[in-house]
Each structure stands twice: as C-alpha cells, then as structure tokens.
Design a protein that fits this description.
This protein is α+β, with helices and mostly antiparallel strands and 134 residues long. The chain has four helices and five strands, in the order ααβαββββα.
C-alpha cells in the first residue's frame, strides 16, 4: 500500500507541478531539506534549486505534457520513466525560442518519506533535447 501511495505523490509532482505549474503543490510535496543528488548544472541541489529548474522548463516549454511510461516503487524509493513533449517557446540554456516541437525522456528516482519528497536522483536526455532546438 505504501508503495502505491508514494507513486501517487510522485505522479502529483509530475502532473500538477512540472506540467501544471502549481507551485503551491510543489511546496506541499517537497521537504524543506530536499536534496537533489544529481542537480542540473547551474542549479542548487536544494528545494529552491528544483523550483528554479521547473520554472526555467515551464518558461521555455509552457505547453509541456508528460507521459509516465512506468513507475516502480520499493521501500521509500519511486522510479519513474517519463516522456515529455513540448514546443520550444522560450529561451532555454541560451537558445532562443525556435517554435520547434521537442520530445525528451527522463528517469527519476525520488525518495518519499511521510508524504513528502526528500531526495532525487535522475537522468535526463539533455543531448536529445538540445539537438532538437539547435
């Protein structure tokens, strides 16, 4: 039961925050001492750094959608593979908007404790994304 509950928490992060842009939900789901063990370059490995990263993605790809391909849960860890589809409508990593459609994939592992996300490890196919907007 706990594994399914933790998967629902991670699904809310994807659907309501990353796609929906609801940062009140972000604040409710993320532990104040959240640690990103694989932070994106230029972003702090903290809750504030994750918030900043999500804002950058939402500004560059405001119509972003996500399809969760699968989720696996073991103990307090939830692994999620997602496919994002969006249009490049804002500057991203120094690249001016191209209006091109992009598709990129991400695998995240999130630790959920007491209904909040405490840790993140992830792999994003940034090279695939950048090749589509360059």
């Amino acid at each position: 039961m706990m594994s399914e509950h933790n998967k629902m928490i991670v699904r809310r992060l994807v659907e309501e925050v990353q796609v929906g842009g609801d940062f009140e939900v972000f604040d409710a789901l993320m532990h104040p001492d959240f640690v990103d063990h694989t932070p994106s370059p230029g972003f702090a490995p903290t809750k504030d750094g994750a918030r900043d990263l999500y804002h950058v993605f939402r500004a560059a790809f405001p119509d972003m959608t996500a399809t969760i391909e699968f989720q696996l849960a073991e103990g307090d860890l939830v692994t999620t593979r997602k496919i994002y589809v969006a249009t490049h409508k804002g500057a991203f990593l120094g690249v001016a908007p191209t209006e091109r459609s992009v598709t990129f994939d991400v695998i995240d592992v999130l630790r959920v404790k007491a209904d909040v996300i405490t840790d993140h490890w992830g792999v994003m196919n940034i090279m695939k994304l950048m090749a589509q907007i360059s």
